[in-house]
Specification:
- The protein is mainly beta.
- It has one domain (3-164).
- The protein is 13% helix and 55% strand.
- The protein is built from 3 helices and 9 strands, in the order αβαββββββαββ.
- Strands 1, 2, 3, 4, 5, 6, 7, 8 and 9 form a 9-stranded antiparallel sheet that branches.
- The radius of gyration is 16 Å and the shape is globular.
Length: 165
């Protein structure tokens, strides 16, 4: 089965989104457990893996890195195949939500692939068993609902996993 056959198929899953408080990188990683992290900082993007509740930055940075101070974070997404923690800046505070598949009401969704380029793809290419000419992407899940007039559209989305396109 090719990529096109795996993507764009409407399916359903039990899924729920709940608000979540930003308590820093460490607490978010502990909450996720395993997966990936993409942090949008004022100085650029950072990409890492979450292993056993700790972030391992692919570019070699660590938690003591001064660019990882909360005030420099514009947004951060931690994700795995079951859930996503997404945080974004709103003025001086950080807002967040957790989207968790496997619990909550049944909803329809479509999975798609989003190609990664530049500052996100480069460190990932060196960390994954892929060829330099391969294109990496993020499998995204787009949740579907009907509006008051019966028109369907996406009401939420989340990152699922890093994939080869």
């Amino acid at each position: 089965m090719g990529l096109k056959e795996r993507l764009y198929k409407i399916d359903s899953v039990d899924s729920e989104a709940i608000p979540i408080d930003w308590e820093g990188f460490s607490k978010a990683a502990e909450h996720l457990g395993q997966g990936f992290v993409i942090a949008n900082l004022h100085q650029g993007l950072r990409v890492g893996e979450v292993r056993d509740g700790a972030i391992l930055w692919i570019d070699g940075g660590d938690a003591g890195d001064p660019t990882l101070v909360d005030r420099f974070v514009s947004g951060i997404c931690l994700f795995n195949d079951r859930r996503e923690l997404r945080f974004w800046r709103d003025g001086d505070s950080m807002l967040g939500r957790e989207r968790h598949d496997g619990i909550g009401p049944t909803t329809s969704y479509v999975d798609t692939g989003m190609a990664l380029r530049g500052v996100v793809a480069k460190p990932l290419l060196s960390s994954f068993p892929v060829k330099a000419e391969d294109t990496l992407g993020i499998k995204t899940r787009n949740y579907i609902s009907d509006n008051a007039t019966g028109q369907s559209g996406y009401f939420d989305s989340r990152f699922v996993q890093i994939i080869r396109l």
